[in-house]
């Protein structure tokens, strides 16, 4: 596979990858998107909150819905309901989330400790969704003493899973330490289905190193939260093209767009802006004078207040392009 042909995936992230942010990342070069994870129980209830998690626009395709759960038949039923509800391009099963609230419900990475159950879940969902493709996301193991990603991937391949994304950390690591791309490489060489590598892809140069592992695509998560242009940069690197970082003005234009679309979506400006505060903190990473900027943004409650902060920052700070911190 030629370097430039590798697809770029936006990693599903709870509380982050809603339709608005997914579309922003698509505009910046993400090829394949997935909803943040949704529980099988949530799908069965079909409430307004769940609808917000799984709905997407035509511009977001190819688009997948990610589900989690530990009951094979219930997850299979939920997958069938999702297909009839929103007609995604694929269903993705979350076998990697390390969050306690997910693990304690026998979902996410908890199934890495129970491969027979993991296999049953995958098999049930694949059968329920056919002919729609089913993919999966895993971690390399539960902890450093139980690195079983190759075994897990082979079971998933045997169950009919069509693509496997591997986050190069264990459940015990959470998001600390370094992703182990040697294990990801072992998975890629052990199965015939596409393997997507995930973890610590912070810039184009790093992406070029990661594709040497033999993966069929790259998945980017936390780096996109601070810098959606990461997809533009990585694509340029894969294609051997030069990349110019966005100017400070361009970065603020994107922030303003994100906030205004959230306000329009929620219909309550103060509520929407309060919900955006953590996202605004992420966007300031790599900006000049970020610390006082974050202090101002931590209390922002309206677009007018945001506009004033932006105007002050652009006046006080030179407007030349700023290299984003990794």
Plain-language structure description:
The chain is α/β, with parallel strands linked by helices and 326 residues long. The chain folds into two domains: 3-238, Alpha-Beta Barrel (TIM Barrel), CATH 3.20.20.70; 248-316. Helix content is 47%, strand content 13%. It contains 15 helices and nine strands. Strands 1, 2, 3, 4, 5, 6, 7, 8 and 9 form a nine-stranded parallel β-sheet that branches. α4 runs parallel beside α6 (115-129), α7 (149-158) packs parallel to α8 (181-190) and α12 (248-266) packs antiparallel against α13 (269-283).
N-to-C SSE string, H for helix and E for strand:
EHEEHHEHEHHEHEHEHEHHHHHH
Uncertain runs with pLDDT below 50, 5 residues or more? none
Distance between the termini: 27 Å
- CATH-assigned fold name of the largest domain: TIM Barrel
Largest sheet: 9 strands, parallel
Beta content comes to 5-15%
CATH architecture label name of the largest domain: Alpha-Beta Barrel
Q: Tell how many strands the DSSP assignment holds.
A: 9
Look at the structure and name the CATH superfamily of the largest domain: Aldolase class I
Assembly of the depicted chains: single chain
> Helix content range of the residues, please?
40-55%
Mean pLDDT rating: 92
Q: Structural class of the secondary elements?
A: alpha/beta
**How many structurally independent domains?**
2
Q: What is the class of the largest domain in the CATH system?
A: Alpha Beta
Kindly provide the radius of gyration, computed on alpha-carbon positions and rounded to a whole number of angstroms.
Answer: 20 Å
